[in-house]
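Report of the visiting student (M.T.), summer placement. My assignment was to run the structure pipeline on a short list of targets and document each run. The first record concerns SCP-like protein.
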Amino acid sequence: MSLEADAQISAKTCSSGFMYRSHRSSGENVYYNSSTTIPYLQIASEGMEYWRGEVDTNGMNYRMQFIKNLETKPNSPLDYIQMVWASSYKVGCGVARCPFGTVFVCRYYPR
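After the run finished, the structure tokens were exported:
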């Protein structure tokens, strides 16, 4: 199954939690918006901006070098960093409407 199909299935579960990393081979980022009418392209853009913003808020040093303590920081940007890292070569995303809003999920290799 493709990463996109996996991400779509994950989004359609409308889960408010993350699947434990040890149970899947790909990394996963999840973004929620409380609107049930937001256009899919807009939530995708918001999700990417949100994840990118974690780097600005909590993130990397000016040299863009990984520092071990990033893993333990609250709101760690680690998931976004892994998704856009040079060694991540596949990304697939999905969107779903849920009772509580809209969910945007991206999966990527390697995690």
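Residues 18-23 have pLDDT under 50 and may be disordered. The beta strands are 27-33, 90-98, 101-109. I thank the supervising group for their guidance throughout the placement.
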